[in-house]
Amino acid sequence: MEAERTLQDEEITRLGDLAAQLRADSIRCSTRVGSGHPTSSLSAADLLAVLISRHLRYDWRNPRNPANDHLIFSKGHASPLLYAVFKAVGAISDQELMDTYRRSGSRLQGHPTPALPWVDVATGSLGQGLPVGVGIALAGQYLDQRPFHVWVLCGDSETAEGSIWEALDKAAHYGLRNLTAIVDVNRFGQRGPTELEWDLDTYRRRVEAFGCHPLVVDGHDLAAIDEAFGRAREATGPTVVLARTVKGKGVPEVENKPGWHGKALKEDMAERAVQALGGVRQIRVTGPHPGSFSPPAAPAKEPPALPRYEKGAKVATRNAYGEALRALGARPDVVALDGEVSDSTRADKFAEAYPDRFFEMFIAEQQLVAAAVGLQVRGYRPFVATFAAFLSRAYDFIRMAGISQADIALSGSHAGVEIGPDGPSQMGLEDLAAMRAVQGSTVLYPSDAVSCATLVAQMVDRKGVSYLRTTRGKYPVLYDNGEEFPIGGSKLVREGGDVALIGAGVTVHNCLAAADELAREGIDARVIDLYSVKPLDRQRLRDAVRDTGGRLVVVEDHYPQGGLGAAVLESLADLADSVRVTHLAVRGLPGSGTPTQLMDQAGIGVNAVVIAARALA
Amino acid sequence: MEAERTLQDEEITRLGDLAAQLRADSIRCSTRVGSGHPTSSLSAADLLAVLISRHLRYDWRNPRNPANDHLIFSKGHASPLLYAVFKAVGAISDQELMDTYRRSGSRLQGHPTPALPWVDVATGSLGQGLPVGVGIALAGQYLDQRPFHVWVLCGDSETAEGSIWEALDKAAHYGLRNLTAIVDVNRFGQRGPTELEWDLDTYRRRVEAFGCHPLVVDGHDLAAIDEAFGRAREATGPTVVLARTVKGKGVPEVENKPGWHGKALKEDMAERAVQALGGVRQIRVTGPHPGSFSPPAAPAKEPPALPRYEKGAKVATRNAYGEALRALGARPDVVALDGEVSDSTRADKFAEAYPDRFFEMFIAEQQLVAAAVGLQVRGYRPFVATFAAFLSRAYDFIRMAGISQADIALSGSHAGVEIGPDGPSQMGLEDLAAMRAVQGSTVLYPSDAVSCATLVAQMVDRKGVSYLRTTRGKYPVLYDNGEEFPIGGSKLVREGGDVALIGAGVTVHNCLAAADELAREGIDARVIDLYSVKPLDRQRLRDAVRDTGGRLVVVEDHYPQGGLGAAVLESLADLADSVRVTHLAVRGLPGSGTPTQLMDQAGIGVNAVVIAARALA
Q: Chain A residue with minimal CA distance to B576?
């Protein structure tokens, strides 16, 4: 671990002073507000001092400079250190750091978020920064083809997350020479020692076995750190700097002691510590400038030539997803990813047409979603597909994407009992509830190919996390090519004033068949296609309440909680009129069978809709 | 990879015939129904023939024999092979296999579920069987202290899931000598080659680096397999048999060919294949018997001496969780697990009292939940705790636990904006929606320490997945010790007929303060504590509608979708009376601040409740 001494003594002194400032500021801001993670910041201060002074190529006055390196704090709880860095480079003032950290309304939140222009993504749920970094590095190496580097500071505790290994595996698979993970091995987690403590050798062997190049250093040896970062930048594949550090380094009262995780120092301790570190400094550091480059001109945003479908023809909406996505591929900023099921989700249609903009993530859904988040950091428009059920594997990543206000499009195929014989493990039956509850999300569930293609085309420029639910089986095309399906809208598929049958996706077809049957009995049923589950078309529902005397049947291929029924009810909650909603949903635990058998057994088939409507009307 | 030849030729022939039967039956049943994964079954047939004949100690007539080994198909899509095994051991008939596989109402579903008595847990979402196996092995080695062995058949594709590495890491950390993963390295995934194809050496190095003992074999060499399984059983730590296999092995038309994943053979192909395999066989195999042992007598189920709290004292419900859990520890079947935050969730109170029944899973929430599922397979009552937000990391595992009908208790602490300065990454704000949408789940959200402790005590014998949401901050104890809080019930905390204020958890306190304020204005507000979010107390809500003329304010520290508000609305959906619900929830993206600031900003604080109630009343 002894590095060649390539740095001049003077530079070492300068870096040491900067590190002392980063430490002092980490302590000062957290003690001022009375919370935060100073000790987790202290262990990594030397690493950051060297990085920002000599390796991170970043134009702090222009965080949108596309030539900038990327710096991600995967260990987001070390926000005092990150914000101390922002002060050191002149991005924020000492006053902002001291007066606003963790306060109401501040952009210096407890964990970093893109409320700050130098922060690409929100972190704080451990094990996510590195997988997102993989996505940014993919963009750099394969799409931008520019030499910016992605530096990710990881905690040692978070290497227990499987997602870290998904990330290293994919980094190696794609040979990402522009990615460096810096693991701050300070051997303490929140409540005690980590699993591997200072067993750097095991870390090294794991990293190597996963195809990345480990660089083991003493994380407090400034020259050694400098050399490792230099080698990382020049490496021919992904690198992992494994830095042996001491938690609380620089403050003897807490150094290498358990029980100090996530605790601000008391004021007197903080004063002594800052004093011992040389007092409050206002060093302003200027690291290497990235230069600049002009990204390719913004792509023409002409409406894509969407696939066309014959009314009445039977087409699966998952097919329409693949075909619409292929059409959108005419835009060079559109990229697609899949979790090793592209022949099922139909993302393969895009992959065949645009292999250079398709990323196979294999069966690693967390990395799948994280890569998309990283790609959108670089301005790409990622479309992610897997089975609806398996997006649940990445729910924490989707939640955090919402907090990052990341613009990503997700497609979940094979939703509901409609999938048939594969059984409940493959059925997305909670996805509408889960996706609706993501901050700022859009949730779409088209019933036919035409509406599906039109919605996919709108997802490309949609802000935030948007989710499309597609259906496995083939159902008749209901709409004319060229019809509009605005997000937030709905379709009145059939007029009727006795009762309103409300579905989305496959249940629209059940509602239509039920309306035919009811018509034979003299019951005049309106059918509404709520293809936009979030946002929802309140007006259409209110009209239905008014016109039918408040008689609504909502039918969904989803568990009863939180899905389409809840969306309808939430939207009508404050209505003064009397409304009676019969809510048909999948109430038991389904098994195998044909789609029709399973829908009938679940009580969401045609007959169930007829019975419910009859009882209301 | 050449093994010592320890088997007699006769036995080799017998095993070969059995393997041929398993192959033929995998083909026959999937071709009969026209779907399923025969090729993924064929690659592993030799492994299973040897396992069930010579190593798996299982009393097929008594799947509840506690001395039985455990067999888990982590690659659940190979269900034809699993059911062919069940036929070979006489557990099911050839007729059941042929006539019911993947059919409506059958227990032989597309992917295995515990509808079959020989199946411990549902699989089919890849990367889950092995983590669950870790939980079963933990029970065997640390609690039961019996020599049963856990055998988990994994696919090679699923090793891309980080959860597999969480599992191997924990298997090594806990030195689980009773656990063997068998990886069927057939080099093909669904849509093409796997990442590592037949690079057995990389698999070996990864397994070794993660602390497990790799055994590389030719997965079609019966003697070599036999030797590897023998060594696995005798090993002093966890073992991973890395079996190089050929997808579709035994059927030349599909052997080692892409494009045959998840496809049943056409009838004529199937006929030729079965013929070539020697036709339909009815071999009945008897493997080693496990013997028997008497598990310890069922624990006395006397009500535990729950912690007591003084009315009005300020106590955090997370504290009550820890204290109640410690009290429940008097029952020897209660175990607890935590994701490296036990000092925050207060699971440390149990850990201190019962260190032998506490399992630290570090920051690996998928493995955390999976271990609990495994522990309940062995009859233990696991309580899992982490931050509410971080349970989202394990959502797919919780979803599958619901399908497995696993009895596990989850506690999510630090829910909502109430947590204060840490910011949105640490706030559980979608957990109620996500957890409500889990099949068969129970969702609880107590407002005070007394109700929390009482609910924890009920979770211990609750069927299915139960979820408790706890609060970070301290709030006054509202109830008397000994009061009852049945699951499915609620509390009328304050009478009133003008308007009903409905909360759960922290918002009950806001409702009470609002009711005081409203009383000063002459508005008589009823306050309801909906501590049981699922199942919900419909009658209490209907009474409130009747008594207040349908004026309800629902307040929740959660995003507006799918949470408490949705639960209330779903429960009132079919009511004919006119109901107006004002729904207060966290509608924007929160930041840092104090709990009160953040609740006020989100519009769920006392003042917001007062304004909403005033507008309705």
A: A580
- The answer, yes or no, to whether ipTM is higher than 0.85 is yes
Neighbours of B130 (CB within 10 A): 32
Q: For residue A323, what pLDDT is reported?
A: 98
Residue B213 · residue B272 · CB < 8 Å: no
Looking at the partner chain, which of A163, A195, A591 has a beta carbon nearest the beta carbon of B109?
A591
Sort out which chain B residues have CB atoms less than 8 A from A106's CB and list them. Answer: 591-592
pLDDT digits (tens, 9 = 90+) for A453-500: 999 999 999 999 999 999 999 999 999 999 999 999 999 999 999 999
Q: Examine the pLDDT at A3 and tell me if it is beyond 50.
A: no
Q: How far apart are CA A338 and CA A365, in angstroms?
A: 9
Has residue A1 got a pLDDT over 60?
A: no
Which among A202, A362, A405, A577 is the top mutation candidate for probing chain B, defined by the most B β-carbons within 10 Å of its own β-carbon?
A362
Verify whether the Cβ–Cβ distance A424 to B113 is below 8 Å: yes
Amino acid at B268: D
pLDDT for residue B1 is more than 50: no
Q: Hey, are the CB atoms on A583 and B560 less than 8 Å from each other?
A: no
Asked if A592 and B102 come within 8 Å (Cβ–Cβ), the reply is yes
How would DSSP label each residue in B517-584? HHHHTT--EEEEE--EEES--HHHHHHHHHHHTSEEEEE-SS-SSSSHHHHHHHHHTT--S--EEEEE
CB contact at 8 A, B608 and B577? no
Q: What pLDDT, on the 0 to 100 scale, is given for residue A292?
A: 85
For residues A169 and B160, is the Cβ–Cβ distance under 8 A? yes
Q: Of these residues, A227, A323, A365, A430, which one is catalytic?
A: A365
Q: Are A207 and A183 in contact (CB under 8 A)?
A: no
pLDDT at B3 over 50: no
Find out whether B58 and B287 touch, Cβ atoms under 8 Å.
yes
d(CA A336, CA A324): 12
User: Alpha-carbon distance B578 to B569, whole Å?
Assistant: 12
Q: Quote the pTM value.
A: 0.98
Rounded CA-CA distance A75/A588 in Å is 41
Q: Are A60 and A67 in contact (CB under 8 A)?
A: no
Q: In terms of residues, how long is chain A?
A: 617
Residues 6+ apart with CB under 8 A from B400: A425, B121, B122, B123, B124, B125, B128, B373
Distance CA(B55)–CA(B288), nearest Å, equals 7
CA distances from A150 to A50, A163, A180, A294 (A): 15, 18, 6, 19
* CB hemisphere CA count around B71 (13 angstroms): 23
How many Cβ pairs closer than 8 A exist between chain A and B?
A: 356
Helix, coil or strand: residue B134: helix
Euclidean distance between the first and the last CA atom of chain A, given in angstroms as a whole number: 80
Pairing of β B442-444 and β B532-534: antiparallel
At A147, list the tokens. 């030499």
The C-alpha angle A221, A226, A229, rounded to 5 degrees, equals 125
Per-residue pLDDT tens over the stretch B62-102: 999 999 999 999 999 999 999 999 999 999 999 999 999 99
* B201 Cβ contact list (under 8 Å, min separation 6): none
Q: Answer whether B416's CB lies under 8 Å from A97's CB.
A: no
> How would residue B301 be classed by pLDDT, with cut points 50, 70 and 90?
low
- The CA-CA-CA angle for residues B7, B13, B16, to 5°, reads 105
Catalytic residue flag (residue A365): yes
Question: Rounded distance, CA A570 to CA B233, Å?
Answer: 56
Average pLDDT taken over every residue of chain A: 96
Q: Which residue of B has its CA nearest to A595?
A: B104
> What whole-number percentage of chain A has pLDDT above 90?
96
**Does residue B317 have a pLDDT over 50?**
yes
Q: What is the DSSP string of B601-612?
A: HHT-SHHHHHHH
